[in-house]
Amino acid sequence: MTTLPSAGSLPISTVTGDPVARVVADATVADVANAMVADNVGAIVIGDDERPAALVSERDIVRVVAAGKDPNAVRALDVASTKLVWCDSEATVDEVANQMMEHYIRHILVEHEGVPGGIVSARDLLGVYCAEADLKLD
């Protein structure tokens, strides 16, 4: 009987697919929200630098709205996270999940040969673990 590797031992590169979604450096929070909907993502990099320095997530947008601020008037850079967490594209799913827990975050930028190769979300990892659980039930 052949044993398949556990989902947690898979390289994170098997989860990343689409290029990193971006908005221009002077984007507003409303611009970010529209781009998230258009790209069907939960986090967006701000600016076009090869190595991003800021990221806005759905939570950042919710904070703006909850504070009663106008998303059309708030600059995305003013609410963006600048303490970005990165992983290498060869890190395992388990390693990335542990990084998320350690930093209490939902998104990690994936680096492949020195350039951004994608963003992995907690939802992406949940999908990997659920797929493995489904296989075990079959």
UniProtKB/TrEMBL annotation:
SMART domains: CBS. Transmembrane segments: none annotated. Pfam families: CBS (PF00571). Residues 12-74, 80-135 form the CBS domain. SUPFAM superfamilies: CBS-domain pair (SSF54631). Keywords: CBS domain. PANTHER family: CBS DOMAIN-CONTAINING PROTEIN, CBS DOMAIN-CONTAINING PROTEIN CBSX3, MITOCHONDRIAL. This is Hypoxic response protein 1.
